[in-house]
Write a structure and sequence with these properties.
The structure holds two protein chains of two kinds. By secondary structure, chain A is of the alpha+beta class. Chain A has two domains: about 180 residues, no CATH class; about 100 residues, Alpha-Beta Plaits, CATH 3.30.70. Chain A contains nine helices and four strands. In chain A, strands 2-3-1-4 form a four-stranded antiparallel β-sheet. The model of chain A has no long low-confidence stretch (mean pLDDT about 80). Chain B has a domain of about 70 residues. Classes of the chains: A alpha+beta, B alpha/beta. Chains A and B meet through helix 1 and helix 7 of A and helix 2 and helix 3 of B. Chain B: It holds the Pfam family ABC_tran.
Chain lengths: ~300, ~230
C-alpha cells in the first residue's frame, strides 16, 4: 500500500465519521457505556487483587522447633525446609525474640509476661515463606513430618478460607468482565453494520471498478478503530477523576486500615491504556465482522 | 476479445437463465444484445465481468477463463473492463471529479496521474465545466456521461453497458450513443444490452438476440427485430 493510499483511507474513515454523525454518536456511546462498566469493574477487581496479594504475602508458616533439639539438629531442619521446592525464604527467630514480639503485641498487658524472661517457655521458631502463597498449606503439611519439629502454625483454617474466598472473587469478576465485553462487541458490531448497510452502494461500486477486498476493508477498519477510541475517552476521564477523589478521601478517612487502595499513578495510566486498547479492539472487531458479509464476490 | 463456449447458468432457485450459449466477440467490435425481459440478457452480460459465474462452460475474456478464476483475481479483471448501468451508480456524496477519480484511487494511481486522466475523460464526455457539481445537480444524461467517464478512465479494452439509455429521453440517448461510438472508434470493444429499437435500427451494428437463454439470432448490421 502506498502512502497516498493510506492517507486516503484515513481521510475517508474520518470523513465517514462526520457523514454518519448520528451513527457515529450511537456507536461511540455504546462503547462508552460498556467501557464505563468494564472500567469500574477493572478498578474494583485490581484493588481486590492488590489487597489479596498483600494478605497472601503476609501469610507465613511458623515452625516451632522441638525444645530438645540441639544446634546441629536445628541446622539439619533448616536445610530440609530450604530444600523444599516452593519455599522462598526461611528466617530464624530465637525464643527470646519470640517473647519480645509477644510482649510487644500484647501492649500494656504484655508487661506481665516479662516474668518469663527468666525462664522462657517458648520455643525457637523458623519463619517460612512460600514462593507462591497458595502452596502455604502444602508446605506446612510437609514440614510437620520433619524431625525436631514441635508444632507448625500457619493460621490453620483461616488461611484456607481466605484463599478460597479470593479465588471465588477473582473468578466471578473474570466471568462478569468477559460477559460485559461480549455484549459490547455485539452492540458495536450491530451499530457498524447499520452504517455499512447504508454504504453498501459505495462498496458495490468499489468492487465494480476493481477495488480489492483489502482496499475496501481498510476505511471501515479504521472507522471502527476511531469509534472504539472515541468511545473510550469519556470512561477514561470519568474513571480517572472519580478514582483520584475516592483515593484521596479514602486516604484521609481510613489511613490506617488494612485494606489499602492502589496508588493513583501508575494504576490509572495502566487502566486508561487498557480501556483504550479494549475500545480499539472491539471497534475494529465490530467493523471487520460487519464488513465481511458485504465482501463476498 | 470475448469468447463463450457452451455456457449454462442455472440460479440456485432453479431458474435456467442461459441454456448453452456460444459466442465470439472480436476486439474493437460494437455489439447490441437484444431480447425480451427475462430472456437471459442480463445474465449474459453479467458473465462477462464475472458478476455471475457460469454453471458450466468457459468464458474467455482477454485470454482469461472467467469460469475458474479465483475470487481474489476478480478485482484485477474488473480493471480491464468498464461497466455502465441504467441507474448510473454514482456516489451521491462525491463530486463529478471525485466519482471519476474513484476508479483510479481504488487501483492506487498517483494523484498526478489521476488528475491528468480524469480531466482527459471528462473533456471527452464534455463535462469539464461541471467537475465540482454533485450528481443530484446534473441531468440524467449528464449523470450517465459521468458514469461512462468513470468506466473508461482506466482505458479498458472492453466496455459493457446494461441498458445505458433506459432512463433517458430519446434526444439525450442519442448524445450518449455518440459518445459510445467515439469510444468504440478508439478501439474499445463495446457490448450493450438495450431495448432501444430506434438506436439499434439506425446504427446497424452486430445484433445478438437472446430468447429463453439461447442465442436465436446473431447478425452483422442487424435490426432490433422486436416491436416493443
Amino acid at each position: 500500500m502506498t502512502l497516498n493510499t493510506f492517507k486516503r483511507h484515513v481521510r475517508e474513515s474520518v470523513k465517514s465519521l462526520g457523514r454518519n454523525g448520528w451513527m457515529t454518536f450511537a456507536s461511540a456511546s455504546a462503547v462508552t457505556v460498556t467501557l464505563l462498566l468494564v472500567g469500574v469493574f477493572f478498578a474494583v477487581m485490581f484493588n481486590i487483587n492488590y489487597f489479596a496479594k498483600k494478605v497472601e504475602n503476609e501469610v507465613e508458616i511458623r515452625v516451632h522447633i522441638d525444645l530438645a533439639a540441639d544446634n546441629k539438629e536445628k541446622d539439619v531442619l533448616r536445610q530440609r525446609i530450604e530444600a523444599l521446592p516452593s519455599v522462598k525464604e526461611v528466617h530464624y527467630s530465637s525464643k527470646d525474640e519470640e517473647l519480645k514480639r509477644l510482649i510487644e503485641s500484647m501492649g500494656e498487658e504484655g508487661s506481665s509476661f516479662q516474668l518469663f524472661e527468666q525462664d522462657n517457655p517458648l520455643s525457637d521458631v523458623y519463619v517460612v515463606k512460600a514462593a507462591n502463597p497458595q502452596d502455604t498449606v502444602k508446605i506446612a503439611k510437609q514440614i510437620e513430618t520433619f524431625q525436631s519439629v514441635h508444632k507448625v502454625n500457619y493460621g490453620q483454617g483461616t488461611v484456607e478460607k481466605l484463599f478460597d474466598a479470593l479465588k471465588v472473587m477473582r473468578n466471578v469478576g473474570l466471568v462478569l468482565i468477559f460477559g460485559l465485553l461480549f455484549t459490547a462487541m455485539f452492540l458495536i458490531s450491530n451499530t457498524i453494520k447499520i452504517t455499512i448497510f447504508a454504504r453498501r452502494r459505495e462498496i458495490e461500486i468499489m468492487r465494480l471498478v476493481g477495488a480489492t477486498n483489502g482496499f475496501i476493508r481498510w476505511p471501515f477498519f479504521l472507522e471502527g478503530l476511531w469509534l472504539g477510541m472515541l468511545g473510550s475517552i469519556v470512561p477514561i476521564v470519568v474513571l480517572a477523576l472519580v478514582y483520584y477523589n475516592v483515593h484521596r478521601l479514602y486516604k484521609q478517612q481510613f489511613s490506617l486500615q488494612l485494606f489499602e487502595l492502589l496508588p493513583f499513578s501508575p494504576f490509572i495510566w495502566q487502566l486508561s491504556a487498557l480501556l483504550l486498547g479494549i475500545g480499539a479492539l472491539i471497534g475494529v472487531w465490530g467493523s471487520v465482522m460487519s464488513v465481511r458479509k458485504f465482501l463476498k464476490v | 476479445m470475448i469468447e463463450m463456449q457452451d455456457v449454462y447458468k442455472t440460479y440456485p432457485n432453479g431458474v435456467v437463465a442461459l441454456n448453452g450459449v456460444s459466442v465470439r466477440i472480436k476486439q474493437g467490435e460494437f455489439v447490441y444484445v437484444v431480447g425480451p425481459s427475462g430472456a437471459g440478457k442480463s445474465t449474459f452480460i453479467k458473465m462477462m465481468y464475472r458478476e455471475e459465474k457460469p454453471t458450466s462452460g468457459t468464458i474467455m475474456v482477454n485470454g482469461v477463463n472467467l469460469a475458474n478464476i479465483k475470487d481474489s483475481k476478480v478485482p484485477l479483471l474488473r480493471r480491464n473492463i468498464g461497466v455502465v448501468f441504467q441507474d448510473f451508480k454514482l456516489l451521491p456524496t462525491l463530486t463529478v471529479y471525485e466519482n471519476v477519480a474513484f476508479a483510479l484511487e481504488v487501483i492506487e494511481e498517483s494523484p498526478k496521474v489521476i488528475r491528468k486522466k480524469v480531466m482527459e475523460v471528462l473533456d471527452l464526455v464534455g463535462l469539464k465545466h461541471k467537475i465540482r457539481s454533485y450528481p443530484n445537480e446534473l441531468s440524467g444524461g449528464e449523470q450517465q456521461r459521468v458514469s461512462i467517464a468513470r468506466s473508461i478512465v482506466n482505458s479498458p479494452k472492453i466496455v459493457i453497458a446494461d441498458e445505458p439509455t433506459g432512463n433517458l429521453d430519446p434526444e439525450t440517448s442519442w448524445g450518449i450513443m455518440e459518445l459510445f461510438e467515439k469510444i468504440n472508434e478508439r478501439g474499445t470493444t463495446i457490448v450493450m444490452a438495450t431495448h432501444n429499437k430506434e438506436i439499434v435500427n439506425a446504427t446497424r451494428r452486430r445484433v445478438i438476440a437472446i430468447e429463453n437463454g439461447t442465442i436465436v439470432r446473431d447478425e452483422a448490421k442487424g435490426e432490433y427485430g422486436y416491436d416493443a
